[in-house]
Amino acid sequence: PPPAAGRCEPGRLQRGDLLEVPRTLFIHFGIYLGDNRVAHLMPDILPAFTDDRRQIERVVTNKRLVLGVLAKMASIRVDSVEDFAYGGSVLVNHMDRLFKDRVLGSEEAARRAEKLVGATAYSLLWNNCEHFVTYCRYGAAVSLQTDKFCEAVKRVIRDQRSVLAAALVGLASIVCLGLAPSTTLPTILIPFLLWMAG
């Protein structure tokens, strides 16, 4: 049976465990491969410029990460638990409670992660670290963080006050700033159409 969900205790990790590290704005995810190694998906621009494994395997800097997000490039890489956690606390198999009936075997999860190591496309909404681990451990690439973000955006779009504010800003830009209606009209119509579609 899968180990109980909870905080990471050194030496208690098992191959195929799903690891989570809460960050300020998001949660980072990885799959434990054994021997203090974690496979995780990281946005990274460096593989686009070099094949030098020694450079690529260094810890990803913030600049590499941001440029990877902008360029929609990433790699599924293997790092030590310490480098993966980057000073944060690690939760183990915390998501299992949400996917109780879908947990694959630990060895299957680890093998899936190992097969995917290497360069990959990146999308904040459609292919991030959470999609990677949920595919490996549960067989379906989903991201609960993305779902929450999209729901928040939908709430803003559906809110009539947002539509009214967009319309007022559009009209004010036409009247006060002298902007052409052809460039300002989309700021009025797009939120209105999205609100109507919602």
UniProtKB/TrEMBL annotation:
<keyword id="KW-0472">Membrane</keyword>
<keyword id="KW-0012">Acyltransferase</keyword>
<keyword id="KW-1133">Transmembrane helix</keyword>
<dbReference type="InterPro" id="IPR007053">
    <property type="entry name" value="LRAT_dom"/>
</dbReference>
<feature type="domain" description="LRAT">
    <location>
        <begin position="18"/>
        <end position="145"/>
    </location>
</feature>
<dbReference type="Pfam" id="PF04970">
    <property type="entry name" value="LRAT"/>
</dbReference>
<dbReference type="GO" id="GO:0006776">
    <property type="term" value="P:vitamin A metabolic process"/>
</dbReference>
<dbReference type="GO" id="GO:0005791">
    <property type="term" value="C:rough endoplasmic reticulum"/>
</dbReference>
<dbReference type="GO" id="GO:0047173">
    <property type="term" value="F:phosphatidylcholine-retinol O-acyltransferase activity"/>
</dbReference>
<feature type="transmembrane region" description="Helical">
    <location>
        <begin position="163"/>
        <end position="196"/>
    </location>
</feature>
<dbReference type="GO" id="GO:0042572">
    <property type="term" value="P:retinol metabolic process"/>
</dbReference>
<dbReference type="InterPro" id="IPR042288">
    <property type="entry name" value="LRAT"/>
</dbReference>
<feature type="active site" description="Acyl-thioester intermediate">
    <location>
        <position position="129"/>
    </location>
</feature>
<protein>
    <submittedName>
        <fullName>LRAT acyltransferase</fullName>
    </submittedName>
</protein>
<keyword id="KW-0812">Transmembrane</keyword>
<keyword id="KW-0808">Transferase</keyword>
